[in-house]
Amino acid sequence: MPDPLSRLGSDVARRLSHLGALARFGFGAARAATSLTHAGRAVAFRVAVNQIRFTAVHAIGLVMLLSGILSFLVISQAVRQLGRLGVTDLIGTLMVVAIVRELGPLLTALVVAGRSGTAIAAELATNTVLGEIRALEAMGIDSRQYLVLPRFAAAVTSLFVLIVACDTVAIGTGYIAAAMNGMSGSRYFEIVLQSLGATDVWLTAGKAAAFGAILGIVPSYYGLAVRRAPTEIPIAASRATVACIVGVFMCSALFVVLR
Amino acid sequence: MTGRPSVAHPTPLVLEGVPFEGTPVTLEVRAHQTVALLGDEDAGVGRLGGWALGLESPPAGRVLVFGESALDLPPQERLAFRRRVGYLPAGDGLLHNLTLRDNVALPLRFGSTAAPRAIDGRVGVMLAAVRVAHVADLRPAQVNEEERRRAALARAIAFDPALLLLEQPFDGLTPRTASELLEFVRGGETSEGGRRTVVITAQDIPAVIHRRVERVYRVTRAGTLVAEPAG
Q1: For position B136, what pLDDT does the model report?
Q2: What separation in angstroms does the CA of B7 have from each of A71, B85, B163, B198?
Q3: What per-residue confidence (pLDDT) applies to B3?
Q4: Per the CB < 8 Å rule, is B110 touching A141?
Q5: SS3 of residue B202 by DSSP
Q6: Could you count the other beta carbons within 10 Å of the beta carbon of residue B231?
Q7: Which chain B residue shows the shortest CA-CA distance from A131?
Q8: How far apart are the CA of B229 and the nearest CA of chain A, in angstroms?
């Protein structure tokens, strides 16, 4: 029986190798874009638009609702507590640092992981089990061009749109919360706008790209990794969702460390 | 848009020491012939398409298509190689979220440099030829088995391949339909070349098809390949 240290070592090695396979898969998908034909690009574009409809358009209501509630709760509490200490100006910093920079993108990514990540993994796993992926490959079609690339592009685009919507609603709801707790609207906007900077725009774009890459590639990887058994479909969907959530949190932490 | 190879290698399909039922088999399918390879489900004949296209490795030996083994090719060349071979997987292999028209067009859209309009035109002609034009804009689940099979056959010959591999192509079809579809996929003698080489793998084939193929081989339970009278 291997000792705990060996077990830990082999577990770490297995996870790193898994990460390597995921990275190879992602780079392979990106490289596949270079050999797309004109007609193939049109098909991939249609698939991407369809995915954006599901990932962004259908989810925007949920993201706005959750973002509004989150912002309302945070700002209501903040106005009360910071008001007692006489430092209500910190609300702007709190709104920008906590919600716009961190919680907004994270909340958006979690919604997308729960809705679209699961759906993408389940869909591709079903395609695999039904033999459709094999048929694609037999016809000389690179399944990454048809299935992965459009979902990757759609996830990045959707994340950007949803994060912007999330932040806008958060700031708007923060205004309501501040007003309900005795702060004037003009004062609220003044301190929020003072705290917002160009960095936040770049950060939003950066997080949309990074989270989008995770949410487009990871579910595709798990979905296409199944073999032939239908029982593998829910397992793939579940693993993909968990991996997406862990990946998004780790990536978020990495942004803080690198900033 | 044609996938017909330069006829540098005369033998479309060669099996070298590939085991069916554990016994290595060597077989050569000559150009323009229609050959049926029959065997029980566990005999392994149903895996020939996958071996020929490099989708999986045979347990031993090798399968050569026009003198090349797909498994020896780098990934991008392997994809191009597969476009030279028409393949109908068991069932139909149609994508269920696409219409029949889009299913037939898909390989052409990703695998040819033709303009989208030219592809659409060709697909329309092919769908009419297999007589599914009236249901072309429906999805596979909305049409019957025969129409699905017709569309899948149109897709298999999308690149006008010189070699066609058909897995259980006639299951569930009437003998008349089976016969009509075989004639369609074989193509006719033209100034540009002879009929397609067609390899059918199945557990059995209807008598009417038996009469129309040039060679019939059956894998026995002992693993030997026995030629049956045909034509």
Answers
A1: 96
A2: 70, 14, 12, 16
A3: 47
A4: yes
A5: strand
A6: 10
A7: B93
A8: 31
B39-51: burial string, b at 16+ Cβ within 10 Å, e else: bbeebbbbbbbbb
What would the pLDDT profile of A9-50 be if each residue is shown by its tens digit? 888 888 888 888 988 998 888 888 888 888 999 999 999 999
Sequence-distant (6+) residues with CB within 8 A of B16 are B26, B61, B62, B63, B64
The domain defined by B9-84+161-231 folds into Rossmann fold (3.40.50)
Optimal mutation site among A139, A143, A148, interface B, most CBs of chain B within 10 A: A139
CA distances from B99 to B76, B93, B133 (A): 27, 13, 11
User: Does B175 or A84 have the greater pLDDT score?
Assistant: B175
Domain boundaries along the sequence of chain B: 9-84+161-231, 94-160
Q: Reduced to 3 states, what is the DSSP secondary structure of residue A140?
A: coil
Measure the CA angle with vertex A58, ends A57 and A60; round to 5°: 65
Q: Hey, how many other C-beta atoms are within 10 angstroms of the C-beta on A197?
A: 11
Which of B82, B113, B119 lies closest to A139 in CB terms?
Answer: B82
**Which residues partner with B18 through β-bridges?**
B25
Report yes or no: B185 at the A interface, CB cutoff 8 Å. no
Which distant-in-sequence residues (6+ apart) come within 8 Å of B220 by Cβ?
Answer: B21, B226
Sheet with B85-88, strands from edge to edge, namely: B85-88, B163-167, B197-202, B34-38, B215-219, B225-228
Task: Strand B13-20: give its sheet, edge to edge.
Answer: B23-29, B13-20, B62-65
User: A115 pLDDT band (50/70/90 cuts)?
Assistant: very high
Q: Note the ipTM here.
A: 0.85
Closest CA to B105 of B76, B149, B136, B150: B136
- The answer to whether A173 and B111 have CB atoms below 8 angstroms apart is no
Provide the whole-model pTM: 0.86
Is some CB atom of chain A closer than 8 A to the CB atom of B118?
Answer: no
Largest CA distance in chain A: 69
